[in-house]
Amino acid sequence: MPANILNLPCYKILGITENEHDYHIDVETQEAPTSCPHCQSSNLVGFGRREQRVKDLPMHGRRVGLCIDTRRYRCRNCGKTFYEALPGIDEKRLMTKRLAQWMGKQAIKRTFAGIAEEVGCTEFIVRAVFSDYVNGLEKTIRFETPKWMGIDEIHLIKPRGVIANVQNNTIVELLPNRNKDTVVRFLHHLEGKDRIQHVAMDMWTPCRDAVRAVIPQAEIVVDKFHVVRMANDAMERVRKRLRESLTPKQRRGLMHDRSVLLKRERDLNDKERLNLDGWTKNYPELGEAYRLKERFFGIYDAESPDEAQAKFIQWQKSIPSGIADAFADIERAWGNWTMPILNYFNHPVTNAYTESLNSLIRVMNRLGRGYSFEALRAKILFAEGAHKHKRSRPKFERKERKQAEPESVMMYGLPGHFKNFEMGDSFARMAPKPAPEPKPHIQKSTASEKPEKNYGADISTLIRMIEAGNL
Ligand SMILES: [Zn+2]
Q1: pTM, two decimal places
Q2: Ligand 1 centroid to 43 CA: how many Å?
Q3: pLDDT tens-digit readout, 164-181
């Protein structure tokens, strides 16, 4: 028998049976325990055995089950009985820790159903293991809180909230929706939220209310893109209404009207300009709507909020009564969002951000089918190689806190352990001793190994990965 085909050095293989689909491997630990976990006495006596069945990494295309012959002992000193500890086993999930780790990584790229089939467990277990894995990642990967935050909508099966770093073109969080409660909860728990200076968003009232409630110091900015597209929509309403009233022959005279009308006047070529002139003569309303749309875009040539507001008032006065209903939404939105719209003139959102986010939204529907929201969120936030880093001095405080929690507790620990430590003195003395504090010089050297700030998942990298089918 090979020394250890499992490559699990803590275990001795006792026997292997196999069939077309499975390996069943009988093992026991290499070393029996030498002391009682309750009182540390070495005065132990065997007290029977039990079979512990756990799953391991699939091997040679077959599912692998380990049958661990686990020893039980009684301590002659304190009288308590215990089972030996099983190294490398996640006893909560009945699998090896390495399998849990592998499943977590796989679940970012593959469906839960596919992994469940390969490992030989239920999808329910894959979901639970994945959730542990993502929680582990979230404890080790921290994104910088943006000074300029974007809150937008993205469609992943349903409309979701995407939280971005506007200056760095990165995504730092995905929310299951954009309800006020969801956004409030997210902002409330956000480390460094007091440093957020601007929040760019579309005109979505629940988000505005959430930002005002939790980070009142942040200035809300409505991106130009969301405002001017309302002028396009208004013009489209006029165009569609007109088309409905026309005969098929007349309609043929309006070839490519949509794309021409949506263009800015300065971008029209000679032929398009000629067409537009013709349509305007025949259908004055269409010309009025086009010119009104163009003048609305012109508001954004203003160089200050005051100038913009004055231009808007002028524009509003110039709306012809025949098409006023089509443009009523804009007037209402400007009235409800005046300050955030005008803030743009002091703090414009970069085109680069708006454009890359819009491209991401366009390719996003290539993801989606067959995945839960949690999996999609993890795919995007924790995509390997997509994180944008920048070297900087490490944050000393954070390192300190992280080291205070032993890794095993963070990843697999039972919540009960924490409770014990928080209880009264007498109980704390009974609780297992926490790991010794790391020495100061060790702390310093670990801190200098990670001198990078992580700004989140780079939007253009994500787009490339999605287009290449790598996500
Ligand atoms: Zn004992």
Answers
A1: 0.71
A2: 8
A3: 999 999 999 999 999 999
